[in-house]
Amino acid sequence: CIALELTSISKPYLLFIDEPTTGLDTHAAQVVIQCLKQLSRNHDISVIVSIHQPNNDLFHMIDTIYVLAKGGHCLYDGVPHQLRQHLIDCDITVGENEVPIEVLIKLSFNGREDRDVKRLCAKNKELTSMSGLSDETRIYVKSGGFKTCFIQQDVCQHLLRGLTVRQALVYASRLKNSRISAHLDHQMIASELMSSLMISDTADNRVETCSGGEHKRIVIACELTAHIKPNMLCIDEPTSGLDSSAALVVINCLKVLSRRHRMTIIASIHQPNNDLFNMFDNIYVLAKRGVCLYAGPPLPLRHHLHDNDIVLTQNDVPIEVVLTIASGDKRMTDFEKLMSKQNSNESDDKLIEGNMRLVYGKQNPTKRFSFRDVYCLLMRSMRYAYISQWKTLALQIIMLIYTGMMLRIILGTEIIVPDGCMTIEFGSGCDQ
């Protein structure tokens, strides 16, 4: 059943499975969970499963657990191996021979008024409030126009197969500048962006034949064809799936665009190498639950670690050490040092300095209806159908002609000639 759901070329981002281990023995249940973990890693899918009575081995195979009690109250939200310590922090005794998840499941059957359940709910609420944006969170930006742009990790869905790079940029420029298109040279806009992003040599190549790094730069160029450039460009993992050389080219192009158009670019990168890391102006390292471990320029990071009594050898790369601390639980002491140091450095006064204003509500990115946009989209679709789907269209036309000819031969012309015969009585024909 899981395989049937994943046969689509466009895989789902979220997969819900209700009790995948019910009725299975221990070995079969572990095989199912292991397969789900492998699918999650290979296809970047979030898999959410509901399990009523997991054994200890099965419990530790899951990345994150969310334990619900009666009434939908959350008793624990986190990684499995920290559950025992979580229960101890809540003054709940767990013996050496007791399994923490079984203890927690027994408590979940109790009502909200149970003393242990109250402590667990309060503790989980306290931990949850430390992650993400709280009700007191405020976002400040510089005064003036505020226009954002977001580019997803999977850029293939932004590109239309069959078009050349130049055609894709020209159509993007016509759509984004439809209200002022009479005053703009779309070919010139496309040429300047291709030159800035170093994709001029692929101008006449079809987009599906370009490499992964070129795909990312083409999508960035399409978003920047607007005459009024965005103030903030957010890019999700611009270097994922690229080799070191292509990743450096992409980041260098982003720096050039940032300087030329006075644009703020925010990029999320999971595993930057040292050269890539030092190309950024500022970095913001996040750990689990959204905790910031470092915010500032790349170069002072080594000195920052030394100030927090974190020993680095000459062969250690500072960013790799910080990412190890951020992603693991083996160096909790170093984690707490960095978190406390960063919290002591942050100040709301620094954010408000320099004529900053508070942003309320959500930006409205919608665009008004325009017949010029409809015409541009229609011409692009016709070109796409002519270039990429002509074989399918030709086959459909041939099948229609063949079907008509076969009907003509089998049925003859008499099928369309009315004979005027009407059956008046039961069993009588036209000769009666």
TrEMBL record:
The keyword Repeat does not apply. It is found in: Membrane. Its main location: membrane. GO terms for cellular component: plasma membrane. It is a multi-pass membrane protein. The keyword Transport applies. Pfam families: ABC_tran. GO terms for molecular function: ATP binding; ATP hydrolysis activity; ATPase-coupled transmembrane transporter activity. Gene3D superfamilies: P-loop containing nucleotide triphosphate hydrolases. Residues 150-240 form the ABC transporter domain. SUPFAM superfamilies: P-loop containing nucleoside triphosphate hydrolases. It comes from the Eukaryota. Belongs to the ABC transporter superfamily. ABCG family. Eye pigment precursor importer (TC 3.A.1.204) subfamily. This is ABC transporter domain-containing protein. It comes from Oppiella nova.
